[in-house]
Amino acid sequence: MSAAEDGTERAGRDDRDGRSGQADPQGSGGPGDLGDPGDKAVGELALRVFSGEERWGWEFVQPPEPPVHRDAQNPPVYREPSDAEVRAMQERAMSGRKTSGFGCLTLIAAGVAFVAAGAAAAIVVVVLVLAASAATSPNARLRAAERRLKAEQERAKRDYEARRKSWQDRLAAHRAEHLRHNETLDTWYPISLTSGPSRIDVFGGTGNGWASLLATLGGPLLSGGRSLVVLDLTQQAVALELAGLAAQRGVTVGHVPMPGALLGMDLRAEFTSEELAETLAEALGTMRPPGADIDLHTIDVDVIQTATDLLEGPVTFSRLAAGLRVLLRVYDADPQAPGALSRSEIESLTQAIDLIGQGERVQNELRYVRAQTELLTKAEVADAPDTSASAWWKPGCLTVVTTEDPVHRRKDLTDRFVFFRLLHTLRKRAVTPGSGTLVVAGADHLGREALETMARQARTAGVRLVFLLEHLREAAVQVAGGSDSATVFMRLGNGEEAKAAAQFIGQEHKFLVNQLTRQVGETLTEGRGTSYGYQRGVSDTSGSNRGGGIGSGSSWGTSSSFSTSLSRSWQDSTNTSTARSTTTGENLSRVYEFAVEPTQLQALPVTGLVLVEAGPGGRRVVFGDCNPGINFLPRLSARPRPSLP
Fold first, then answer.
1. What whole-number distance in Å separates Cα of residue 263 and Cα of residue 377?
2. Which end of the chain has fewer surrounding CB within 10 Å, N or C?
3. pTM passes above 0.70
4. Secondary element (H or E) of residue 402
């Protein structure tokens, strides 16, 4: 994925059990033994988690690469010394070979003449002449020119190496300076919601991932004086870590265990008979398959409201179940039984039997409602009964509502009733607008209609709503991206769900390199030419003339001429050329692909997340990590990442 993914791996993973098992979420908690290093670490973590602004995680931002030095594209150029002198000497040497034979013969003849004359001194002169001739010959001058050229080449190479080293040192110093500056930059930035949505949907993830997300999110909320209610339907104690950290900070933490806390409370304190009937009927209605007869909801409301209206004392689930048994004519009047009814209540309910109808359909639905209500009464009673749900919303307090039961049907019914009980609280506007946040964890099984109704009522009541949904199935896909909402994706192991998430995140155009070409060519041309010309001309002219006249004498003459011309010419030429060429080509293709591949969503770390939000600056996709242990990392920013221009 990106730099964010690299940063997610750097964060590491804290042991959730080792951090969250320090405090009891049912009490207000308090500081632990200061002598215990583990408690000190938890206390320090709680201090850091409960500070700063609201955040959903941390975004890792790789420091920028150092900018390119202005001379990076202008490296030193090696300049080869000119070899014109050597080439000129080579041409002279080639020309000298043709005339050297005549000169040598002349010198040898002169030497022989001197030897024949017996002049010893002349021999020395001849030797000196030969030596001087050799020293000033074209070959000697060529070798001298070659030595000078070699010396110039060595000096040019030394100068080039010095200039190149200086260039490299400047670039290295420039890069090192910016890298030192990067060491002072923050690399972890808090992720905030710039659009301020009223609902956030979290899809995917595990219990540990949700626990980390709640701890990271809940700390700033509670420290800011806002109330936080967590409805945990997962049976994985996803709020335990947050509760432990809150206890370390002295934050009041309340725990409401369901369904046990429901059994001892008087439902009249929170519901009218009509409201209780509607709430319980809605809970029962979500247990039916989609498209069931809507009249069943009306029958449920009528039956429950009738029984509730005729109960004179407190309305508990035990007494409500007893009243439904009277309507079915199966009530066993045992004064010692839990939820026993008074004689007047039994008489009133008996008289109402005919009012609710005796049809088979009504009787079957009455049996169903009675069986579901009695199912709740068989749960283990909590130590203390619950109060009104509106009392859960206390400023600066954390309330954790859990639903746990070994019987699946009772657990399922409890989930639904508590969910619609909270929905009823939102409908009554019993919560101060803008003062609280409701988190519902594990609400996948409640259905799309229930989730949308809760989202609509929470937005109207001014309560921010957070859904933690394990799967991204068809119903959940229809919920995602609703009005005034943001979406967070955590690990989605299922391939189809990961693909659906990738499609939701969207696609974008990318330019990908599909071909790289590099061609290197070198052409070496060397030529040598020799031409020689010889021309000789001979001219022979002769003539005679004779002349005479009357009265004069006669004359006679003869003339002749002979001429010879000789011309010779020769020419030697040498040429050398080298041509080098390098061609580099890169072909790009524009493709339209997933901005985040499904495999990336499947491979997210436990605490990794992808935030999708339509903010003021447009739609954005952010990779992050919600591990609370990131608070201990260095180079941690207190403010979100600045928006890019």
1. 7
2. C
3. yes
4. strand 398-403
